[in-house]
Amino acid sequence: RGCVVCCGGGSDMGPGLVRQMDVAELQAVLADEDLRDTVQLVDVREAWEEQEARLPGFTLLPLSRQEEWVPIIAQQLDPQQHTIVLCHHGVRSQMVASLLATRMGFQEVSNVSGGIDAYARLDPKTPRY
Length: 129
Hints:
The protein is 36% helix and 18% strand.
């Protein structure tokens, strides 16, 4: 599927594991409406960053405000549904993806490697900042 697995695992991912998704796979998900309907898209950047560059369908949940959204995340998102997490370069999103997978009970979590910056290199319509 164009991704590698972090922390071991393989295709039969278990709880607590985070997949590394490359930006080409994310682009394919965003381009396919049926596929897009099967995932949850989470952007953990700051609001000002989202204003600079955004991708369709992502819910903004800034890492800096996690104390506000962590207590209610399982009501906002379905822990059983594939969740894709994005940030600027992939560091903050990896932190949130790991939190979702290890502490919040999310079953299938992917971190977008390289973040929106890498995505913008693939899609010139997405601004870089």
